[in-house]
Design brief:
Strand content: 5-15%
Number of strands: 7
Radius of gyration: 39 Å
Structural class: alpha+beta
Shape: elongated
Helix content: 55-70%
Strand order of the largest sheet: 1-7-6-5-2
Oligomer: single chain
Amino acid sequence: MIKFCLIGVLSIVSLYSCVPTKNIREENKAVPEQYKNQSTDTVNTATVNWKDFFSDPNLVILIDSALANNQELNMMLQKVQMSKNEIKAKQGEYLPFVGFYAGAEVEKVGEFTRNGAVEKNLDIREDEAFPEPLTNFSAGLSASWELDVWKKLRNGKKAAVLEYLASVEGKNFMVTQLVSEIASAYYELMALDNQLTIIEQNLDIQQNALKMVKIQKEAARATQLAVRRFEAEVYKNQSNKFQIQQKIVETENLINFLVGRYPQTIQRSSQEFITTKVDTITSGLPSQLLANRPDIRQAEFELSAAKLNVKVAKANFFPSIGIKAGVGLEAFKPKFLTDTPESLAYSLVGDIVSPLINRNAIKAEYSTANNRQLQAVFEYEKTILNAYIEVENQLSNVQNLKKSYLLKEAQVEALTESIDLSIQLFKSARAEYTEVLLTQREALDSKIEIIETKRDQLLAHVKLYQALGGGWN
């Protein structure tokens, strides 16, 4: 016999209308057709694998090691695995639960109770009274199943799948950031090496100039003031040398941290830094960001999951229908367990449970799900807007740095020639020592600046690659 227990009364519930995601601020979600002042070529560098994008073998080895050993990335991989486990948990919720049970119990009831009076006046069998105390042994199978009429459990499983896919995209986005950080730190390290070399070369020039001024002083052609000024300039650059050496140590250790290893020397080819070729990056179309950038795809999956979670919260207003069943053997002595059908026991129960009063918690959960859906919509819009602006900024940065570098080259060449000219003029008393000092200082600054410009070019190259969605594949 099937027993139905109706708890509560089915009633018409007033539900909040589900928030449509496709019509929310639709006018702001469309991406531009092309970048500002850029061609509409569909070729996109973001599809290039990072091992092909970076030509420096030392940098490729560092990135490859980081992808295997970086602690933060490994923690993200565990988060992805946890999201995958959540799918299995949600999938099991809408399937029947079947379990095995076995038990034994003993009971002694008072004679002046209903159960005691029954046991006293009835026999289990003819001329065989109830044993006292009464034991009970049982074994069998039990099953329970919630009928997913409103697709609450299936939508919960689909939402878990989307959350898992979002976590995968989150991992991919972290990979793009990690690749970019290591490449940026690597180029920064090579720039510091070149700056250190320039300062050492300039120190040789300044020390030779200092010797010349001392000789000029002995010949009464220069003053002690000039000597002290030249000495001060030497001390200044010696101090800058130690500062750069400290920055080199810190940058090396930053790379070691990203790679997931203890401090050690970073292998690099700094001599080729200034001649490093900066390849042209093709930006493609803005709409390709939707397919290439992991953070946009992550926001899209989270938006879809939020929509399903609204449906799950809405289903809480409807009655839940459950079925419970069991079949097994039960007897007061173990030897009777195999006596069937006497020891056979089974049950089948169906119930419907519907919320009736005090539904504030359900309403609050539904409102929260709607709010989270709206939040996901705004997050999706923000991610797309941020991606477009990042690409636009880096495209402009690449173009302006290219023009700036050409002018810096001309400046360095002119000031390098000016050093020898100023020294020759000073020897012939046709220039003041201050002109020599100023020329040397300007030449040093220009050489440092061109190295920084080359570094900025390479960093912009990396950042544009990342902004377009490259580096994770």
